[in-house]
Structures
1.
Amino acid sequence: MTHAHEKHREHAPKQINFYIITVSTSRYEKLSKKEPVVDESGDIIKQLVIEAGYTVVGYSLVPDDKVKILRAFAEALDDPRVDVIISTGGTGYAPSDQTVETIRPLFDREIEGFSDVFRNISYGDPKVRAAAYLTKASAGIIGKKVIYLLPGSPDAVRLATKELILPEVGHLLYLVRG
Amino acid sequence: MTHAHEKHREHAPKQINFYIITVSTSRYEKLSKKEPVVDESGDIIKQLVIEAGYTVVGYSLVPDDKVKILRAFAEALDDPRVDVIISTGGTGYAPSDQTVETIRPLFDREIEGFSDVFRNISYGDPKVRAAAYLTKASAGIIGKKVIYLLPGSPDAVRLATKELILPEVGHLLYLVRG
Amino acid sequence: MTHAHEKHREHAPKQINFYIITVSTSRYEKLSKKEPVVDESGDIIKQLVIEAGYTVVGYSLVPDDKVKILRAFAEALDDPRVDVIISTGGTGYAPSDQTVETIRPLFDREIEGFSDVFRNISYGDPKVRAAAYLTKASAGIIGKKVIYLLPGSPDAVRLATKELILPEVGHLLYLVRG
Amino acid sequence: MTHAHEKHREHAPKQINFYIITVSTSRYEKLSKKEPVVDESGDIIKQLVIEAGYTVVGYSLVPDDKVKILRAFAEALDDPRVDVIISTGGTGYAPSDQTVETIRPLFDREIEGFSDVFRNISYGDPKVRAAAYLTKASAGIIGKKVIYLLPGSPDAVRLATKELILPEVGHLLYLVRG
Amino acid sequence: MTHAHEKHREHAPKQINFYIITVSTSRYEKLSKKEPVVDESGDIIKQLVIEAGYTVVGYSLVPDDKVKILRAFAEALDDPRVDVIISTGGTGYAPSDQTVETIRPLFDREIEGFSDVFRNISYGDPKVRAAAYLTKASAGIIGKKVIYLLPGSPDAVRLATKELILPEVGHLLYLVRG
Amino acid sequence: MTHAHEKHREHAPKQINFYIITVSTSRYEKLSKKEPVVDESGDIIKQLVIEAGYTVVGYSLVPDDKVKILRAFAEALDDPRVDVIISTGGTGYAPSDQTVETIRPLFDREIEGFSDVFRNISYGDPKVRAAAYLTKASAGIIGKKVIYLLPGSPDAVRLATKELILPEVGHLLYLVRG
Ligand SMILES: [Mg+2]
Ligand SMILES: [Mg+2]
Ligand SMILES: [Mg+2]
Ligand SMILES: [Mg+2]
């Protein structure tokens, strides 16, 4: 008997377009001053997406500011090519962290399990351990698009993208599109 | 004795910049087809704002679509000149009405009383009467900006702008700016 | 110029079917003991609905009990003939009052203005006055059906049905049906 | 026929104990510096309560600070003599206003109608008019106690206490005590 | 020293009655056409419940429809014999999935940990892995009854029932009954 | 490359003051009758905090009562020496369990991941296993203070304090203080 998850995976779209948003005040300020910006986490997501055979159709870099974050997501959501948005940064407990507080209320449906499954596989990493409970990394659905809000750390971004996003995003888009 | 509200009004800013957003699928489609568009409600707001000695610094026309609405508000919020955003349309109970559902979750603080005071003065209008309870017209604060979400009807827009928004918006901006 | 509300009223369905639910522990207990039950508020709603040219297709009497209330509403919602459900009772602040707490979380959309407009016209009645703020009378939409949760008192039921429900329910059904 | 509200009023307790909390940073700072403090709004509530034949059993003055507000309410709630708590101040839209944001989430049940009925009678006062929509004055129930969160202005406090609280608080306590 | 959980388990009721609800549009349509229906997941729950020495007192099969789901739960909740309700189906992210969205708002208390513990043991199954984050399987309490909302897949149902529900449901009923 | 979590840990404050609150009706009643009280879980927290080089600056014992719980937390929050509050007890599903229901609505930000990470490491303990899903143990931030709401069992308290709280609380305070 074929397992249900496997059957769904067969129906997953082969062509998926991603939009990457990096939320980082320090990098944004460098960019504003035309200084060179290294965005390691953004780059990791792009590379993993491409290695998986998917496409990156857009990217933006914004500071930890509710309105700038909102605008970047609104533009990505309004781009008809975009299937999936992944952000990195702003998911923690510093007062400046605003990504989840800004975007989560917009979800038509929150993919509630993304937060806890991500934290629990993070907990399993000896370099992270208890620090795993300090992230609000989240996912949700707006219209027919899927949004992932990842932490800023390169390790966290690699883990989430490789272990959780890429294996299931096609399956999820298939479900969401009804 | 000077009344507290009167004292606050003295401190109100004299120069206030408004951004108007009309939410109307039919007008948006005409615009997309380059047909002439009459936006009576948007025009009423603009005229009343100008007559009050304030300034209109921006305007956009969007359809009843969550993402388009979100984007228009995000751009207005991100415009440093803007103090107040007023929208018209999409506050009722047709399935297409999405303005309040989209923007209210973004309020840092909802100005809860706007909805009920507006409905109750509408109820007093013999042309509206019980239909007054069928609007979700709302107001709220994001950052230091004030947002009003008005119905689409010209009469409703005139009533809200003249009787509720213009008399208190300066006072409110003074409070919100702390 | 024809007013928007008037145009909508023209499109309102002429044939509307109501289901009445009386929530009253004392009457339910009498019914259970096969004693005669006078349900003045339920009777007022029925009579006003019929006088307006509409139809009552169902009625049930339940105690102030979350599960019994839920079941009565579920059966009314599942009856394909029913367009509008009106309940009477259980909208106050006694610990036994559970109607609003039970049904409101099920609304796809709450018709938020019903509560405040109803309270404010009640406040205008010299027999009610400040007691008006002690009701949670509410309305909302589930699927394509409209639900009104009215207080238990005959005067309140008459006021809400005559002044708010009957004048707009056709208009509202027209909107809700998209 | 005796009206239901009148019957309930007959059952209302005759002896009711009030605790008054004034929320005002400026007055609190004066008090801390042992300067003389005039608390006009607090005094109005006390006087009206006493004139109505009820008793004031406690009073505290706190600044617009979440934790100080919380502590004052916790102490009043924990005082077995107290039936009703009335606060004045901190219900507006300045960033410092925190009374409603702090206490409302603690309500077992919010008395939702207090906010809109109060705003609508305030709107009727020509000195207040549209400023009425700028208050979040609220009421609610915790355990068997009733809490009213009033604005800071003497006029608002007098209106709410005379027109809404004193006429119904006995009735409400009777209901709440089940 | 005896562990607290072990002591509670001693007090657990020995006789527990379950009601099973299968939420599946395809099976419901077959049933409506009097075609033979195989409900593998429903059958697994029944069998595991009986093997554990408990009793199945009711069963219903409903489509992925808010009102039908609501009615089935309302009838199960209103059946005085029922201690525990387990549903299977409708917990995912297809637009048709409505079980959790319908029933969760009715919980007096959500058993929040059921969702994340279930997802994390699912993640440990190599056939499920990252797909684990795509379920909203949930549990909660209404009155003195416990409700579990399980996914539709036979493997998920077997895992949840064997590893989470049956080991603790007696303990939980003992707690909930106070 | 130094890992981000390690860098944050370097910035963590060395001196941290804890306030312990035990929520237990049975112990509170003994205390009220001046009988000897053994508070094993409270003692475990104190000992672990001290062994970690931190300080316990306050302690209180309250029954499972919303107002008493609220008051104890309000006093601890209002104590300027206190950095972290840890409570034990009242996080389960007995009707008397009220700690989480009382304090969670006061959080400025909930540290959402604490609940699920704690449950999942509890699940890994063979003495707890599925009982892990029956706790609502939670954490959150009020102002610049961090609050942990732990279960009443000594084993749970030891696990949470050793594995989750002590390793990250300095890091978290550093983040929260901005
Ligand atoms: Mg960051
Ligand atoms: Mg009643
Ligand atoms: Mg003030
Ligand atoms: Mg306990």
2.
Amino acid sequence: MTRSFYPPQRTLMGPGPSDVSPRVLEALARPTIGHLDPLFIELMDSIKTLLQYVFKTQNALTLPISAPGSAGMETCFVNLVEPGDTVVICQNGVFGGRMRENVVRAGGIAIMVEDEWGRAVSPEKLEEALRNNPETSIVAFVHAETSTGAQSDAKTLCAIAKQFDCLTIVDTVTSLGGSMLEIDNWQIDAAYSGTQKCLSCVPGISPITLSTAAIDKIKNRKTQVQSWFLDLELIMGYWIGGGKRAYHHTAPVNAMYALHESLVLVKEEGLENAWNRHYQNHLTLKAGLDAIGLDLIVPENERLAQLNAVKIPDGVNDLAVRQQLLADYSLEIGAGLGSLAGKVWRIGLMGHASRKENILLCLAALESTLKHQGATIGSGGVEAAMAHLRAR
Amino acid sequence: MTRSFYPPQRTLMGPGPSDVSPRVLEALARPTIGHLDPLFIELMDSIKTLLQYVFKTQNALTLPISAPGSAGMETCFVNLVEPGDTVVICQNGVFGGRMRENVVRAGGIAIMVEDEWGRAVSPEKLEEALRNNPETSIVAFVHAETSTGAQSDAKTLCAIAKQFDCLTIVDTVTSLGGSMLEIDNWQIDAAYSGTQKCLSCVPGISPITLSTAAIDKIKNRKTQVQSWFLDLELIMGYWIGGGKRAYHHTAPVNAMYALHESLVLVKEEGLENAWNRHYQNHLTLKAGLDAIGLDLIVPENERLAQLNAVKIPDGVNDLAVRQQLLADYSLEIGAGLGSLAGKVWRIGLMGHASRKENILLCLAALESTLKHQGATIGSGGVEAAMAHLRAR
């Protein structure tokens, strides 16, 4: 293909990227300026302030890493984990496993605390693990497991970690902007997220925030951070501190326009209003899914609003359904990952995708497609959702 | 700033980001699709093919890293350098020093071969270093030093490295698309570049290419690659090989639209034509600088066409000139880096910025601004450039 590429207009209701706000796409294409331009430095400061707002933190070290969420994860681990450090990782899905990879590659010792996929992390198991492993200095877990749709009680988990004098690293990729998250109040020392989930932004950037305790740990490292690109002391030289900024790497300038616009959108809506919108739209989707007879795999009080893992009915061909949704409706929903592959669909209601129109399209498309594929399911998903909407 | 950010229209003639093609900006804002969408997989294949074209390589492992050039550099080093490996690095500017950082953090032993900043790397010194250090397994150098405007003879340097059975890692950030570069013919085993220089694209992505010999070295590693995000065996699972692509990270989808469009532009122009355009425009700029009396610091046969390091006349205030160019002409030129800070300006003629209009603007703006700042310089830069253009 040596001609220009014109993508179709999709409706993105998978695990991310999710629908991007038209305002964000428009901002993305504004004229590029230099990464050391005084006006770009002002934009950087504004991005930091807005990220503090959405993270609910006063942390000075709050900034976007110039790469996707996986790089944000790696930033937290390679800076905070030194060779020989013991890290307790609570795993209840795919991304806890990736945390383990990061700890091991940083020379740390990973102690895994396993929970069933589709369930929240168990505070009791964490407490037991910390009691049995007093040398532990860091606790890590995923707040909103994108692979299962389960939400863990980050506040309680961090409080336990603090009883054992541990730093906390929390994956907030799918929670930031989509459900309650309070970095400072919950005692989270390091968190990373992504732009392509509940922020309505394009994929490619990873907001992070680190507490003063986390910075102290970095400043007192006995070994050099193994990554030059992700070394926070170097990145801080560019992102933090007065008028003089030291060149580290060339920032993805246009992606920063997009991130800034997406944060302005959250600020305009109000963070708590955004959380509530995600929750209400989840209930509306749930009403429709109930009517069709599709079940969520996560127990009610552990469910994420923004990522709904739906059990695939017996005998239904996972891939055929997803392909038909894409072909007939230009609608993308997500497949299962890891041990849930072929067993669930993941329906995202994230950011700009968390809208009434999307819910109704998804319910109508799913119901019709499942029937076309010969599945025995119920009817009236759209009507049930509409009834729920009218009653809101 | 909680309002939308509207950047000014700059003319970007620094060391990058350089002017972005309007077609690339337009492509950037096209609707986001999923990173596993069948159409996105097709786009990925097309990007790989076009990158093979601009790199002049048959390497199967030719793909864009989802992060800036510094991450492309780190990808090459953390995958190819194992703890204890000896790497000879030829340094003639800032970026050779960054290579050293990468080698050391990967546990390798860096042997530095120093050349004067502003000069090409010396083949004789490299040969001597390899004779004195027979345990060396990798040679690394910068093809086009963005910090000084010097171009090294990559073909000769790689041939020497091959005599000593070494792999070669070459920084082609500023050369790709802007001056002659032949990965296969020159025996380059690993190269990385950036999108924001001679490709007329936005910053944020790093094209890389690795030879089969480089892949063999990776496959025979005794230790795990220290970075999960930059582990090429994992990245290959997503970017290379048939219909089945394994999820690794969420690709920056819109940035890939932009990269693709920028590569289509090079293909339309013809790679050799693009090299020649950069060279001819360099000569035109040079004719104008000669008239004003501004000197380039790099000897003629070692000069980069796309990055011109101009000696700042004695007594002239570096920062004041650059600030006035920005304020009065919305024109950005680059400051000196490292030991050249305050001593040179770096005038980029890269990609979409390598145009007649930019040369004339830059000459007129520089001449007028320098006179306003009280410098004693010549006149007629624009006329000399126009005369050169008419004679072309």
